[in-house]
Amino acid sequence: RCENLVEVYFQLQQQVMAASTELGPELLSRLLERFNEVLSSLVKSSFLVEKQPPQVLKTQTKFQASVRFLLGPRLLKAAPKPYMVRADMVTEKQARELELSNYSNTLSESTGEILHNTVALETNPTSGNCCANFKNVLLKKIKRCERKGSESVTEEKCAVLFSTNVTLTPSNISIHLQVLSLPIVVIVHGNQDNNAKATVLWDNAFSDIDRVPFVVAERVPWDKMCDTLNLKFMAEVQTTKGL
């Protein structure tokens, strides 16, 4: 579907260039600028997290994740060498700022130290998918935010930001791609695991799809909570019988 839209884009661009004399330099310039904006928006929306990092993540523990660039096979096939994707930890505040800027801003500082956090974005010759697979990533340490009142570290949500810079062919446009993982709770000890899972469960169950990161309702009706606990129970026990 994305590839079809890109093909339509390039066909329209060719038609505009063919009619450049009739359009005149001023209108042609405006149209080409608009074409670049449309292409940039389409390309940015096709950079996705394919395999999410664990939503409860313990420091000094290896984990895996992957991102996929849907338009990579079409737009990066003439690249002289693979582009590199970087993974960084971001706070909820940083995630919110990136969201509000429509991901036009770049990350100024990572909130944690991740080892092996740079991976090549490559097209698999068998599947044809353009992916960056993080197979041996380790969160070495996390920089905690200031907490309010009795707020626990297991209520603090962060995320992994995946980013890269690509130059598209044949248009030769440079674009910065960024995508956030689902919210993550970082723990340093096993005794924090249950509270962290509770934060994640609440966020996954009661957050809106289109939201400012990572805003979620503080209270919900009991019937919604009951349904969530029921689904969680059946998933954990692997049964079709509810509570």
UniProtKB/TrEMBL annotation:
Residues 51-187 form the STAT transcription factor DNA-binding domain. GO terms for cellular component: cytoplasm; nucleus. Keywords: Activator, Cytoplasm, DNA-binding, Nucleus, Phosphoprotein, SH2 domain, Transcription, Transcription regulation. It comes from the Eukaryota. Its main location: cytoplasm. One of its GO terms (molecular function) is RNA polymerase II transcription regulatory region sequence-specific DNA binding. InterPro entries: p53-like_TF_DNA-bd_sf, STAT, STAT_TF_DNA-bd, STAT_TF_DNA-bd_N. It is found in: Cytoplasm; Nucleus. One of its GO terms (biological process) is cell surface receptor signaling pathway. Gene3D superfamilies: EF-hand, STAT transcription factor, all-alpha domain, STAT transcription factor, DNA-binding domain. Belongs to the transcription factor STAT family. PANTHER family: SIGNAL TRANSDUCER AND ACTIVATOR OF TRANSCRIPTION. This is STAT6 protein. It comes from Pheucticus melanocephalus. The lineage of its organism: Eukaryota, Metazoa, Chordata, Craniata, Vertebrata.
